[in-house]
Amino acid sequence: MATWRCVKQCGACCHLDPTERPGLETYLTPEELDQYLSMVGEDGWCVNFDHATRECRIYAHRPRFCRVEADTFHQMYGIEPEELNDFAIDCCRDHIADLYGDRSLEMLRFDREVGIYSNRHGC
User: Fold this and answer.
1) Coil, helix or strand for 113?
2) Rounded Cα gap, residues 12 and 90, in angstroms
3) Burial class (CB in 10 A: 0-12, 13-18, 19+), 23
4) What letter would DSSP give residue 6?
5) One matching Pfam family, short form (predicted)?
6) Given phi > 0 = left and psi -120 to 50 = alpha, else beta, which region is 38?
7) Angle at 88 between CA 5 and CA 120, to 5 degrees
């Protein structure tokens, strides 16, 4: 069974382009929306994302909307705690595919780290 976890040096969630995330105002408070928009750089990436290391510079102190936690996802999206694992995996896979491609190294790493094994080469 696949188990969601944050995969270091992926950074897909750090691509914050609001045009690719419709409905921000429906699940962020007005203060969070202001904070979110202030974090979006000209290239659509979070200003706290270090492209060289592919890590968040404020990970330990990141805002609520950057955290994959049962309480947060229940409050923001109405996701029940028992649904979080599958929901988070699907969200990450969709975002990784959109940014890097569904056969990218980032996708392969994510799948391996969370325990999704595919038979891509007919083996």
Assistant:
1) helix
2) 13
3) exposed
4) P
5) CxxCxxCC
6) alpha
7) 75
